[in-house]
Amino acid sequence: MSHKAPASRADAERWKANLQGEVDGAHIYRAMAGNAGDERLATVYAELASTEERHAELWRGLLVEAGLPARPGPSWRARSMGFLATRFGANLIAPTMAAEERRSRAMYDDQPEAAGTSLAADEYSHARVLHQLTGGLSGAMLRRFEGRHQQIGGNALRAAVLGANDGLVSNFSLLMGVAGATATHEPILIAGVAGMLAGSLSMALGEWLSVQSSRELYENQIATEREELEAFPAEEENELRLIYEAKGMAAEDAARLAHRVMTGDREIALDTMAREELGIDPDELGGSAWVAAITSFTLFGIGAAVPLLPFIFGSGTPAIIASTILAGLALFGLGAAITLLTGKHPIQAGLRQVGFGLAAAAVTFGIGSLLGTTIG
Question: According to a count of CB atoms within 10 Å of the terminal CB, is the N or C end of the chain lower?
Fold first, then answer.
């Protein structure tokens, strides 16, 4: 009967962390497979989940041998990510998972237990697969592969959290500044409503101008590329060949593919050059300016409305206290929500967000008090 040396505390903690990561990955990929929008994508995500589950068994076995607990459930973050995938589709969190796989692809390179197993190779494979599904393929290609048309990704979640946070912090600070300057209810309420509307309109206009300007720039670049294709087809074919070679394709294969593209349908050639040379997706052109504007208006308005609510239904010190509590809870929620993208601890991130928001409000309240005293 063989006797193994007891696991060190450092090893046990590392095994627990590895097991938790694999359990979380399997949970998220299962959720993504359940709402991938396409049978082929669902198969890919299911295979990723199976690999994570196989990895988990190795770490679970080591913990069991050491007499340690080895049945962790999915973490809060994994459950939240799984909920988002189930509710809104796998594409919402695919960019986040791709970034996470890229960061952790070398995690098993130096772990002795992974020697002689496929763990390290699997992690690199996962990173490549997710890269092809998100960064390696254009948004339009991904949506065609999925069989649906939507513009949702990790950046959308980030924009939603930050948009609401901007509205919350700016209007909360404005309300506290006015509350510090005057004890009268009406000016505080008027300032809050005006701040909410002005900020929402400003954000909407800014987003509309940004996206519309990008669209017009892309359209101009594509029009120029069309003219170059007509006037200098040989030069454009040579450019495409060099692009393919730079991506690692053999010279003969690159020349053959570039020639085939350029001597075929002109619209396909233009589409290819726009993607490969300009880095532009002709099917998107930066998205809809109106969708961006409406989304920004709505998210900023929702955030700005949170600290304003107590002043609609109350006044004086109770309203100030209630507004501070509501704003603090909302700030904590937003700080915790952004950890779905960053992977940081939600409580730490939430408290940090609360600290920054309350500090900003305290500064404006103090300035408002000084100004109110001076003016009075």
Answer: N
